């Protein structure tokens, strides 16, 4: 099978890390992060010990220039780029009535705008039949306490998926979002009290919250050749939570 080069933005922790592991079965993966160098080095060592071709890269994707520099590093090192997964997030919990201008700007710059810049890069420098995937959440269109800035940033992200999918189809590149209900990551554990996690698991038809692998396996399919006729879609995995 042809090797494919992947970039996972926010790929060293949580769902991004699980995605990096899964995509490493198909070729080299570049996993970017913002500033946690110690966690990045530990993750790089773990990948090396498992015999996986994973390179960690520090990068701030909040600016167009930051995204261009990151893609430069990948293309220079690997000779091209096939798959991009956007998994970075600024998880600033606030009521919409309390969101400051500073928080609003940072949340949109981190959670939404990078997909636009990554889409432009895929148009210019991505190989044909590429894949661009954004991670989102069903709370983009439903109320949950504290999601006053994050929810709207994810809704805009899902809209961008539609617009980019329409444009990138010219080169056979698909653009989709994978949406996860509550997923067990260190970030989520730091934000949601244990009691609420347990209550949500009880209300979920399949009886548990998500695991990072649940989302990573869906990304694996969406980025595969088997999903070559799916574009502009949001694929939701939530254990059936939003059925009720
Ligand atoms: N966990 C859930 O319940 C859940 C549910 C649905 C959707 N999601 C979505 O899934 C994605 C991953 O979530 P997660 O919980 O796995 O997050 P996470 O563990 O906190 O990982 C986020 C990563 O993004 C990086 N990052 C943050 N800002 C960045 C920036 N400006 N430039 C580059 N990298 C940046 C962080 O770097 P550092 O390590 O350096 O800080 C971190 O490695 C997010 O889009 C999230 O909204 C999560």
From TrEMBL:
Top-rank taxon, per record: Bacteria
InterPro entries: NAD(P)-bd_dom_sf, SDR_fam
Cross-referenced Gene3D superfamilies: NAD(P)-binding Rossmann-like Domain
Record's keyword terms, sorted: Oxidoreductase
Family per record: Belongs to the short-chain dehydrogenases/reductases (SDR) family.
Protein name: SDR family oxidoreductase
Gene source species: Sporichthya brevicatena
Upper lineage: Bacteria, Bacillati, Actinomycetota, Actinomycetes, Sporichthyales
